[in-house]
Amino acid sequence: MNLRYWPLLLLLVGLQVLPAQAKPQRIIALAPHITELLFAVGAGEQVVAVSDYSDYPIAAQALPRIASYASINFEAVLALQPDLVIAWRSGNPAADIARLQQLGIKVAFSDPLTLDDIGAELRLIGQLSGYPEQGEQQALQFEQQLAQLRQQYQHKKPVTAFFAMGTAPLSTIANQAWPQQILQLCAVNNPFASSKGDYPQVGIEQVIQAQPEVIIQPVAEKVLADFSYWRPFSALPAVKKNQYLSVNADFIYRTTPRTLLGITQLCQGVDAYR
């Protein structure tokens, strides 16, 4: 063989023997939505620890909790020897994430901000965990169903509603808050949509002035919504007509494929009052 071809031959042989990037075997998820996304793409068996409130799917409930919204248990993380930690860029303390990186731990980030980001997150989590095909499949399925819901509700008659984040203090949603995006898709008019901040506090006088036809309240699964706070305010059309709607808080607040269930639940619930 001509010697001038040896460098090319050696390069080709080298490429054949290089190992593919190893699939991470010990993953820590630092937010409930990340846990749920990992299980959705088929990587549940690789998850060795999660954050507080990571309760879905059921298998996640048996995993150790090593983080809260306020802090990370570094000793627990190091003891688990993860080869990948997936953090929530908007939710986990930046200083804690920086310390993980300083300790030599590989950190990737999840940060869905819009409904459309969920498809991209499924692809990302699939790539990170070694399940790119499953991530792509789940993403396409989510995007198709989301598009169908948008088409179904794009010409619906708007209904004015008050989304009650809480009543002590009285708070709601606005701007780019996750539930606000769902209200918009469902053709629900939020009179506080342009308020300052994504989760503003409001006064009951402001709510009465807005005259909502429906009051929407998120609740935990298997918890009955308590609408007794509203009964004294008969000046509200929603109270006068007894038009209340409770929705599953996990479906509404978590950026996962189950968001589709939250959209469906809220849209169909509002439909009853159009």
Automatic annotation (TrEMBL):
Alphabetical list of PROSITE patterns matching this protein: FE_B12_PBP (PS50983)
Gene3D superfamilies for the chain: Nitrogenase molybdenum iron protein domain
Domain spans labelled Fe/B12 periplasmic-binding: 26-274
Record has Methyltransferase as a keyword: no
Name by which UniProt lists this protein: Vitamin B12 transport system substrate-binding protein
SUPFAM superfamilies: Helical backbone' metal receptor (SSF53807)
Matches recorded under Pfam families: Peripla_BP_2
Keyword list, A-Z: Signal
GO biological process, one term: cellular response to iron ion
Source organism, top-level taxon: Bacteria
Keyword Signal: yes
